[in-house]
Write a structure and sequence with these properties.
This protein is an alpha/beta fold and 116 residues long. Helix content is 22%, strand content 33%. The chain has a four-stranded mixed β-sheet, covered by helices on one side. Strands 5-8-7-6 form a four-stranded mixed β-sheet, with helices on one face.
């Protein structure tokens, strides 16, 4: 059996660090973990770490990288928080789901916990 784990590592440029921390802690409700790089813990035990480097993809280039999915009990409330924070909505012609770009460039889809 092969399965995708619940740990993700990404890269971002240093100038996005403060806004990225605010996004993950205040909007997504993550806890900051103590690791050699900045890491965030989600309520389900998943984690996402970010390494800051000047040669990371810029935000436009990052939209062509991997897109991640966030599961929540209240997708509408999270969508409203994302929009109120002024984060960029990303349009995808393949479906009607809500996608946004976090500071640093990572794209996320917001999905309800009851979606497969």
């Amino acid at each position: 059996m092969i399965a995708l784990s619940n740990r993700v590592h990404t890269y971002a440029r240093p100038n996005s660090k403060e806004k990225l921390i605010e996004c993950f802690t205040e909007i997504l409700g993550c806890e900051i973990l103590s690791t050699p790089v900045l890491a965030f813990a989600f309520s389900n035990g998943a984690s996402l770490s970010v390494e800051f480097t000047e040669d990371a993809l810029d935000e436009k280039q990052a939209r062509r990288g991997a897109w991640l999915e966030l599961k929540t009990d209240d997708a509408l409330a999270l969508k409203e928080k994302v929009l109120a924070a002024g984060l960029l909505r990303v349009e995808f012609s393949g479906n009607d789901y809500f996608y946004f770009q976090a500071p640093g460039g990572q794209v996320f889809r917001i999905a309800s916990n009851d979606e497969r």
